[in-house]
Design a protein that fits this description.
By secondary structure, the protein is mainly beta. The radius of gyration is 25 Å and the shape is globular. The N terminus is likely disordered.
């Protein structure tokens, strides 16, 4: 991999534009880090921001918008980013925070941006917030049942219930027959075209983990924990380039740990690197066609040497970076600073989440009258889209869409997936007991997307993977497709919903975004080593070919069907 210099590259880290600032704790000693992932309170926590900022007028829950960004474009160095991050809650902690009558909180999948935050821990001067201390338990008393009536009334009710049950049984039988007919009709719909495997790339190791991928018109660019960053020709699967290690890169770390979901119109994407797949030490702008590093910047400093997870997203020519050590946007072409997050008080703890076009921050400021605030920022400019006061901390488990903003939010009182308007008012999606995710069982996949006003997203229902369609205007669930994994169309402008069936003979199908009606497109090979996809990313190219990227090396590497 070759490199070319960019503005500010090679400057000492102390003077670099990210401005790592001194921190100090609110009160009390820092609890020791045990290194046990099962204890959520022992996980790495954000640091306290020392810079004082004027406190904004905080609205009620209906929110407000502002034209002022928290950071402004200028030629000066970065002066306001602060550590951000949100460790994953344990299952028992989530259960304790759940109020009776609400469904169990969504679980962040293995491989997601927060799943591996066991590495590193704050300094002794940093106070770690205890989420249990912040929760507000709701009422938990069960309601007593109604007493039985007199014997004659009970008998009359029994007869009426019997007639009702008989009627329902007849209707159920008729419905069952209709369901069987529908199932037979669907089973009869088999694609006449058959795809065959043209080439495959074995995984570099059984414990190789997919970090991310890009698909261009000619290349597949794949980042993984054991394979590094590599590009392959779509025609024959041969390697085109490999991010070879240089002396400088080797010192900082060459293992990909974060990757933008897409590349820009100029074919540039962002990749974070570190010593392993969960600790990022530097970010780079990479040209997808050649693998050339256009610019790079550090994600650690002398005062903040502990590397941690980071995620990165694109919006036009601005790349946002959301990490434990920083939050802000950089120019995708040069790596120069565009905007940076600033705390609103001396003693603030903040948690950030990102997606294409948006960044959400939930903060707690001990020295402010309004302790908890949830804010949505424009990812391109850093301007506040909306801000609202809260009673307690919120976890944003997934951001499913940036525009409109659709996010799964967990609080001490309930879990909900909401469609937010420009004032922060949220409309619930009727998810029921389904757990929505951004990708197919891994944070490396980003197949959830909008088709017009319909959100199509992977989900889990009763432990099984499904695909759900929701009307973002009304919040209604339109349909559910079972035994299928969602695919990503190669062209972002493609309005077709593609999926692969996983039961029986696998097929490439299209799904009508509004009705959920499926249409078979092509059949896929059956059998071990031919089609064994469990989790990861599936691409559908413009000519109808299928590209399979498994999340784990034990399930295989890359397979191409045509």
């Amino acid at each position: 991999m070759s490199t070319e210099s960019s503005p500010g590259q090679g400057a000492p880290q102390e003077d670099h534009g990210w401005a790592f600032r001194p921190r100090r704790s609110v009160a009390g000693p820092q609890p020791p880090y045990s290194g046990t992932p099962a204890d959520a309170t022992d996980r790495p926590q954000p640091y306290w921001e020392e810079q004082q900022q004027p406190e904004p007028a905080v609205p009620s829950w209906d929110g407000w918008s502002s034209a002022e960004p928290y950071g402004r474009s200028s030629d000066t160095r970065w002066d306001g980013t602060m550590p951000l991050g949100v460790p994953e809650l344990r299952a028992d902690a989530r259960e304790a925070m759940r109020e009776p009558g609400h469904r169990t909180s969504p679980h962040t999948r293995h491989g997601s941006e927060w799943a591996d935050q066991e590495s590193g821990y704050p300094s002794a001067a940093t106070t770690v917030l205890d989420r249990e201390a912040l929760r507000h338990p709701g009422p938990g008393a069960a309601q007593p049942g109604h007493p039985a009536g007199a014997g004659g009334e009970r008998a009359g009710k029994t007869r009426r219930v019997g007639r009702i049950l008989l009627t329902l049984a007849v209707l159920a039988a008729a419905g069952g027959a209709a369901a069987v007919m529908l199932k037979q009709e669907e089973a009869a719909a088999v694609a006449s075209e058959k795809l065959t495997r043209v080439w495959q790339i074995p995984a570099p190791a059984a414990d190789d983990a997919l970090i991310g991928s890009w698909l261009t018109d000619k290349l597949l660019v794949r980042a993984s924990s054991r394979g590094g960053l590599r590009a392959y020709d779509l025609t024959d699967g041969k390697q085109v380039w490999h991010a070879a290690s240089t002396a400088t890169a080797a010192k900082r770390g060459t293992v990909p740990c974060g990757m933008s979901p897409t590349v820009s119109a100029q074919g540039i994407g962002t990749v974070a690197f570190g010593k392993d797949g969960s600790t990022c030490t530097w970010l780079a702008g990479v040209k997808a066609s050649t693998g050339k590093i256009l610019w790079s910047l550090p994600l650690t400093s002398k005062k903040h040497p502990v590397a941690a997870t980071a995620t990165t997203y694109l919006q036009g020519n601005v790349a946002t970076v959301v990490g434990v050590n920083f939050l802000g946007g950089v120019d995708l072409r040069t790596g120069s600073r565009v905007w940076g997050y600033q705390a609103r008080g001396h003693y603030c703890n903040a948690y950030g989440w990102g997606a294409d076009g948006v960044v959400m921050v939930d903060d707690f400021c001990l020295d402010k009258k309004t302790r908890f605030i949830l804010t949505a920022f424009d990812g391109r400019t850093g301007k506040v889209i909306w801000r609202k006061a809260e009673r307690a901390h919120s976890d944003v488990t997934h951001i499913l869409s940036g525009s409109p903003l659709v996010a799964a939010v967990h609080t001490a009182r309930q879990d909900a997936v909401r469609v937010f308007d420009t004032k922060g008012t949220g409309r619930k999606l009727a998810v029921g007991n389904d757990e929505l995710t951004t990708g197919n069982e891994t944070g490396a996949d980003h197949s959830a997307r909008l088709y017009g006003k319909v959100l199509v997203t992977p989900a889990t229902a009763a432990g099984s993977p499904v695909i759900d369609g929701f009307d973002t205007t009304t919040g209604a669930k339109l349909w559910t497709q079972r035994s299928a994994v969602l695919a990503v169309p190669a062209s972002g402008a493609d309005d077709k919903v593609y999926a692969i069936t996983t039961s029986g003979s696998p097929q490439l199908i299209t799904i009508d975004a509004r009705t959920g009606r499926t249409t078979p497109v092509a059949g896929l090979p059956v059998g071990t080593g031919k089609w064994g996809f469990t989790s990861g990313t599936v691409y559908v190219t413009s000519d109808g070919s299928v590209l399979e990227l498994n999340a784990l090396g034990s399930n295989g590497g890359v397979r191409f069907y045509q």
